[in-house]
């Protein structure tokens, strides 16, 4: 089991984190069935530039369990990772996302979609080739797919991970480094990973407007990324002030509830159509001046 130290230094048993509890095993079986029954859905959250242009969408899994209701992705992804179900979940997500991308393209909506992949996937032999084959099967160009990875891909077998990512890059798939700043020795990783985008973790963005240290961390991250030729996206942007700070710091795009939460496919289509070529408009920009 995994133990966690509380503040007194005493180890506390956490049943939630035990990978073999009947609860987790039950959930794992339910997830397997839900995937087979296509009960797991993808929602899409926009990434927008400061000019309002939609830079892309991120696919996020949503699972409504028949008895438990919504199960948070963090929870069932951890279960899928530790049980060997992860490759199956990723295939399902890639398949569903590419079907949707192809459908949108047929409707004249050429928006790239980002799919989150886990370290497990990157270590699955043949992963890069399988992704390329899937793109070809859906008639979707590689540039319309982005994969979001985290620094954790380099924890286990850095060489193999680097080879897989190089293979994906060779096929023209763009990669984004998610949750940046939460991993370890990030600078070394940045050099080794063939990513074109860096996403600043929400934990640094959330208090940006009120915490000067967080603001400095974000400023340095933006400068570092730009000097390496990477685009920078801030996640978890919830208010106007944070949006403005990020724009002033030179960030390239934002994602967050200020713009839109993740939406079901039909709602995403309507959202994309409503913005048209005008792009997303900040609510505050539409308000009359008050001074
Ligand atoms: P992530 O990739 O870093 O995704 C961002 C998370 O922040 C999402 O949570 C999103 O709904 C949430 N979020 C977006 N904007 C805001 C905001 O303004 N405020 C706040 N408080 N939260 C915001 P979600 O959907 O619960 O996903 C959690 C994590 O689960 C994701 O983090 C990702 O690591 C993982 N995940 C989600 N879908 C997939 C998937 O298809 N495959 C894999 N391997 N992992 C996935
Ligand atoms: Mg992500
Ligand atoms: Mg993230
Ligand atoms: Mg995150």
Automatic annotation (TrEMBL):
Question: Can you give the residue ranges of the EAL domain?
Answer: 24-276
User: Source organism's superkingdom?
Assistant: Bacteria
Q: What is this protein called?
A: Bifunctional diguanylate cyclase/phosphodiesterase
Q: Which organism does this sequence originate in?
A: Streptomyces bluensis
The major lineage groups are: Bacteria, Bacillati, Actinomycetota, Actinomycetes, Kitasatosporales
Which residues of the full-length protein are shown here? 470 to 760 of 763
